[in-house]
Amino acid sequence: MTATPLAQDDPVLRLCNITKRFGALTANDGISFDLARGEVMALLGENGAGKTTLMNILFGHYSADDGSVEVFGQTLPPGQPGAALRAGVGMVHQHFTLADNMTVLDNILLGTESLWKFGLGRGAARARVAALSRDFGLEVDPDAVIAALSVGERQRVEILKALYRDARILILDEPTAVLTPQETDALFDTLRRAVALGLSVIFISHKLHEVMAISTRVLVLRHGRLVGAVATQDTDRHKLAEMMVGAEIIPPAPSKATPGVPLLMLNRVTTAGLRDVSLTLRAGQITGLAGVSGNGQGALADLLSGLAVPRAGTLEIAGDTVTDWTPRRAIAAGIGRIPEDRHKTGTIADFTLTENAILETYADIPNSRYGWMDWRGAEQRAEAIIAQYDIRCPGPGTRIRLLSGGNMQKLILGRVLEESPRVILANQPVRGLDIGAVTYVQNQLLNARDSGAAVLLISEDLDEILTLSDVIHVISEGRLSPAFPRGTMKPADLGQWMAGQGFEYAA
Amino acid sequence: MNEIVDILISASFWAAILRIASPLIFATMGELICERAGVLNLGIEGIMVMGAFAGWIAVYAGLPLWGGVAVAMLSGMAFGLIHAVLTVPFGLSQHVVGIGITLIATSSAYYAYRLSLPEVTSPPRIEPFQPVDIPGLSDIPFIGTALFSQTPLTYFAFFTVLVVAFVLYRTPLGLALRAVGENPSAVEAQGLSVTALRMGAVIVGSGLMAVGGAFLTLSAFSSFFFEMVNGRGWICIALVVFGAWSPSKAMMGALLFAGFDALQVRLQQTSFGAMVPYQVFLMIPYILSILALVLMSRRANVPAALMVPYNRGER
């Protein structure tokens, strides 16, 4: 490594006045900071605040328009990841950069040796990886093929890649977004060991409790600018949230619901993933569905969206039993759907906002007339949604893949709510969104409830379920618990149902 | 029935398999290198034509045979460079560019042929590579004549498979090549250049394809005809899939196809062959290859980034 003699308290990394523009958008605006030896610095900001761009400049994926990066006192040449790696900067990308058909060891070795060397030296490398695994608590089988690994294991490989190259500065971009709570704890343990050995860590996140738990210092970015730098011990979640959003955060405070008639009823329905489920969704009421992921939430969502049909039992909408149940029928029946995965099933990445806005209603006026598309009408409709739901984008002709998750979700929300649906199926509507967007989406769902829609809220976040729901069901192994009215259940009680207790009588 | 047994126990049948397989092996290895790096090279058919012509005309003009091989390789690399520039840094559609390269390479070869030999009605012959006996091995009864009395280019073809397999699985360069076809961002994040790796693979792979073409003129037919490559390039594309992107399996595929081809020629001369139109025999290797492809490609592990252009910094 570039072992320039440094005083103990000299910064290991110094960013000076970094500015980066993408067309009209200034993603980073004159950002400067220092990173000290052995510290965990959290970089906090909403989606689109410029965190990832800044780190991509630091790592050399992008060249900055202005400013410089110094590592251990030496200026890095812009736009060269190789130079950053050699200077001791390692980055764990949000989207893993692993070759799935190769082994862990080969992924770690990739690029570490001269390309023209004759052999690979896998033996020595395996021993080194084993030592690093042990020292940093990163257990993973070096000969496993990446495709066979869990997400948590893949992240460990990414960290090992950096450590194998003697990284002294570790950048982690949203590392916990894909981890279970237990895996997050293990990651934090690894980071603490790394810091104890004198490494420095930059931890990018928008999860406040994690930032409070792991960091020693917090930098806050908003709209590409550095808006705050505080020691973690001098702040709290509330203050950080305000700094991040730039305004006071008012969590949604639902008024009392006025439940109306049943709009959708399941009577003892069985499908591929559901067992004898009965459920009533009433107008003007949010029904929360709690449960550990993979216990039948997807099956229920598929059923309500028309992607699955009951094998036994009946589905009634507004009192009529439906037959011949298809997605088309579900749309016609006024079921608005916010799908679980906005990238895979909610939008078509390379379609424009306009096209995505009319995916369900393309055949209706004003989007088309007499069987011909009316693009002017469709675009006006998209513009109306963009304006009303405050979607940050260059215009309705933008491909939707260029939008942040929050803005994408707002478009889906607008697409659903503008049709004034009678029933709203909201499957994980705020997953992966930042605070501002979360509050916005939740308030919109409450508004829809108050104007008479029946909402089914599926979430793995118990806080969210308890805050928003007027009645709560728990789902476990495809079975549904009785309905619990608001305020009758504590998280611990729900947790017992989620673990499958209480269902005996129905089994 | 006896006639088929006679074919199978004749050493010349097995020697023919190796000979027929040689050009396929060169070109298949070339295509495999390109595809492992994430670039589908449909220029293969035209590059083989160009290699066949360039190698032959160079020898006709007075170069030694190995000089002809080198000229063929350079001509292939030149068209590979065009393909690489268009598909890698410019990120154009690999299908369209590949077909374009095939068309332009084929017609350039024909055009150059007409320019250099305007008067002739039948192409002149050159003195091709002669079979070389491997000392010791070629004296083994049957096996010696079947396997170890081939032209140097055939030995070279099998050597190429060894080199490609060694580089792919045992060197840092091969690791980087396999990774760039699977996930280019993995390569960039480790500080290597996606563009350089992919362009290099396409250029070297195209050079090998051209050597495959040159085998036809310098080792098999000793002259250059139009249509002499006759779809061998397309067969090689299928052989890469058949071999599941593995050099050794692709080589086995080439041998299998060559075996069917050698067999059908001999079947035509049997008493049974007198009763059936010869076109039926010509179909045999293709039909059997399609069947084999259907059976094999079910568990194919195609490089994940094949045909996906890589644009730095795009989301």
TrEMBL record, chain A:
The keyword Transport applies. The keyword Nucleotide-binding applies. InterPro entries: AAA+_ATPase, ABC_carbohydrate_import_ATPase, ABC_transporter-like_ATP-bd, ABC_transporter-like_CS, P-loop_NTPase. GO terms for molecular function: ATP binding; ATP hydrolysis activity. It is a peripheral membrane protein. This is Sugar ABC transporter ATP-binding protein. It comes from the Bacteria. It is found in: Cell membrane. SMART domains: AAA. Its main location: membrane. Residues 13-248, 258-502 form the ABC transporter domain. GO terms for cellular component: plasma membrane. It holds the Pfam family ABC_tran. Keywords: ATP-binding, Cell membrane, Membrane, Nucleotide-binding, Repeat, Sugar transport, Translocase, Transport.
From TrEMBL, chain B:
It comes from the Bacteria. The chain crosses the membrane at residues 6-27, 39-59, 65-88, 152-169, 201-226, 232-260, 272-296. The keyword Hydrolase does not apply. It is found in: Cell membrane. One of its GO terms (molecular function) is transmembrane transporter activity. It is a multi-pass membrane protein. Signal peptide: none annotated. The keyword rRNA-binding does not apply. Keywords: Cell membrane, Membrane, Transmembrane, Transmembrane helix. GO terms for cellular component: plasma membrane. Pfam families: BPD_transp_2. InterPro entries: ABC_transp_permease. This is ABC transporter permease. It comes from Puniceibacterium antarcticum.
